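2.7 Reproducibility. Because tokenized structures are sensitive to small changes in the input, we list the exact sequence used for COX assembly mitochondrial protein, including any N-terminal residues retained from the expression construct. No trimming or masking was applied before prediction.
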Amino acid sequence: MHPHLHTKDNVACEDVMNALEECHARGFMWKAIGMCNNAKKDLVHCLRQERVKSQSFNRNNVQDKKDAIRQKWKEIDENS
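Resulting structure tokens (single pass, no recycling of outputs):
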């Protein structure tokens, strides 16, 4: 299972998505006998890399926000 493909977050995987869609457009039997498996593996790999980038970016942002909140609470406690 994969997320919606054509979103702003998945721009880096556009070529891989198009390759998978072209493979699927060849017909049911092409998919059924596993001819699209490599394209699917490439897509899953690309989406995973994008998700890991996003997660690390978000993790860093959260840590910065937590540090700012701790600093504000520290200032409040010192001024109380």
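The first helix runs from residue 14 to 25.
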